[in-house]
User: Fold this.
Amino acid sequence: MSSGNQAQIRNFSIIAHIDHGKSTLADRFIQLCGALEAREMQNQVLDSMELERERGITIKAQSVALNYTARDGRTYRLNMIDTPGHVDFSYEVSRSLTACEGAVLVVDASQGVQAQTVANCYTASELNLTILPVLNKVDLPSADPSRVIKEIEDIIGISAEHAIRASAKTGEGVAETLEAIIEHVPPPRGDTEAPLKALIIDSWFDNYLGTISLIRVMQGKLKLKDKIRLMATGHECVIEQLGVFTPKRKPVSGLNAGEVGYVIAGIKDIRDARVGDTITLAGRPAGEPLPGFKEIKPRVFAGLYPVDSADYDAFRDALGKLCLNDASLRYEPETSQALGFGFRCGFLGMLHMEIIQERLEREYNLSLITTAPTVVYEVLTNKGRVVQVENPAKLPDPSAIAEIREPIITATILVPQEYVGGVIGLCVEKRGIQKGLLYHGRQAMLTYELPLSEVVLDFFDRLKSISRGYASLDYDFLGFRSSNLCKLDVLINGDKVDALSVIVHREQSQYRGRELTKKLRELIPRQMFDVAIQAAIGSKIIARETVKALRKNVTAKCYGGDVTRKRKLLEKQKEGKKRMKQLGSVEIPQEAFLAVLQVNEK
Amino acid sequence: MFNFAVLPPLSLYIHVPWCVRKCPYCDFNSHEARAAIPERAYIDALLRDLERELPRVWGRTVHTVFLGGGTPSLFSPEAVDRLLAGVRVRVPLAPDAEVTLEANPGTVDIERFQGFRDAGVNRLSIGIQSFDPEKLQTLGRIHGRAEALQAAEAARVAGFENINLDLMYGLPRQTVEQALADVQTAVAIQPAHLSVYQLTIEPNTLFHAKPPVLPDDDTSWEMQNQIQDLLAEQGYKQYEVSAYAKPGYECRHNLNYWRFGDYLGIGAGAHGKITGTQGITRLWKTKHPGNYMEKAGTSAALGGIHNLAPQDAAAEFLLNALRLTQGFASSLFQERTGLALSIVEESLRLAETKGLLNRDHATIRPTELGRRFLNDLQVLFLPETSRHQTRFVAHG
Assistant:
């Protein structure tokens, strides 16, 4: 197939909720096109990070170029672009979709439409993509295709009458889906002769090759040795390698308008090749970059500290390495009186934070203390300055503050009707403002404006438990809004522990203070002396709990001449102590610093 | 690295691995004797074992002998006589050597005690545990209150004046009053020595698999305080975590452990610790009685052997010596470990800051807080293991 023939190219994404079968379907496509030998097939080829496979989600966008011989006898180049499947990564999703002309909407035939799918479909519609609905898992006895078709039509607003019934598991409907892509998704129509505009879908770092960028050429063409310019950063470099993923890396000599492939150009820092940026030729630059580029900002921050301060250097190196591959991760050194030297890290959301934390502990063998995550607050000082506060301990003195503003999101929640009452109750408790409530058959769609800090806290878990797992959530950042907030401090045996401070709404401060001290009392083990835990706002103590002193810690028996058993017992105690942080004379377990996340229901 | 001016006193531990019935709290190397105990074969094995150990302690005098178990009183007086005679011809036994035998009240009478005495046993340690019939049953003991009292009386009549009674408190559903009543009954017998242990649930015991309801921390704390007060009033001086004695009747064998002395260990699963010019060696024998009897006297009877690294020798000295209520003479550290006290200086200082330890020019002793939180004190002296090593240990 000539790569210059755009009529025989189809670029598409798969939109699906977690567990609705996206990766299995993608595997089926790869199999059907014979891109990999059977022995090379590993379940869920595209989710290549160990963590991705374990969690069943995609974190990095990937692509695969497939050659498919259709029923019309012609061979087509299908570029399947995989998208991240979590609300933390919605910007990445929008960039992936921009690179496509069509999207396959996969909906589980028994579970129906989920909020995540809706949000991504709206994005796809805004980008004028052709959406092909596929009902997956129709082989399950609980499948209810006609109900789900109605849901797709009601909620997403596209015709689903001809939705393909498929089962990625049995293979039913897989070939039909590929045929439908060829028939309904328009081929790309970029002008090959126009100045080059290539969209960066994703970038990652390879130890041997440097930065690899996945790109879609929107117009023009690029070839080896071309000198390119990245329009957002102005960075210029020379192309060293071009290619496509089959899904193995396969070098080519050029990429033309309409094609998807990768570029390697000796870029050392992935921040120079940002997701959404436009690549053009240095010698013949495009006038305007492609629309939609955004500087991505971390929304959730937490302090990360090594339990053993001797690990600080190893920790810094590990963060550096993770950043090579994760342009949205931010970190800067931070010092806590309680925890010593560490880093304040910025994340896209809670999932992103958990992933980074887990990778640091697993891949770099670090033992870390994570402080309670916080959102960014905007503080207007009396002198009229606006300060960004990413760490509650750094909140200016109340006398210097004119106003504190907190980030607000627009949340879209899809939930079966019977749970609507519970979800509304939760949103009210979380200081939400209702913006919409629509019923679509069995499902209800609620729109709320909510403070992001409340969502970070425990909103998602609560939502899931209220709806028995049926509710789904998507959100967009709306802006900052002034609110009656204050700082809640925790004192342990009279000493303020900076790492435990949180910013809370004043009306909730009493309750949060009581819950936090209660939780800490459960988490801090009994020690040689009483441990007083207090919650304070300014100098006013609002709650107090005491961990009563342990009476003794002695092993009564000595084991005759066998000292090894006694030693083993003591080694175990010592190992336990190592996982504790010493604050003054009090030993605090790691989990205590996340206690604020575990406040119970009212 | 090690520099010993004198060798420490030497003791001999002899393990008898059989019991009439295994107690649900016991995690020692003991087995229910299903048929008759192979007395003759086992004693032959013990003596072969001892002979093979002789080169390690050539010319050194043994100051204490301890027959522990298991239930050594299951052995006949004739067997004990043959054993001790066999020991005497192989190693020099000090004329005033303390020779202890552990006895179970359910297995003894006056004649038997007299026989042990004639064989050379001069100290008896009787495993009473409790005088409360219901508690004895819960503990799976084979004796009742009457047997317990009779055993103590029989020992006295047989001529023993150095008697220890083992007691436990913090028993399932025990009240403070019940615990105190046990100790009062024991004191009325006027033994020279009392060992009073708090019951703890150990892994690999029946109690671990099916945990009984034990008194809470505050209750067992109350028991301990009242027991300590009562024993002090009655002239029993506490000299170790669980050991109380009339003046001059401290257990010399156990004191040798706690002062990091040397000991040979013979018998199934017995542990030994021997100081040589090259350093300190720990060794232990294979655990299973049948296997032990077959292999005793050959290298195959050895369960394991290793030399202590300096930091381990230092830690193990303190693990033992800090159990002593009065602590130890500072000079003893160098004498017994062959190392300068300065290698633990940092930990000593930390322990002092935490209020767990007191030092003057001559002695090092745990404070009242240090005795209550002895584990926290001892942990300070454990050598640093790298994370990698620790992981390895944890998984292995």
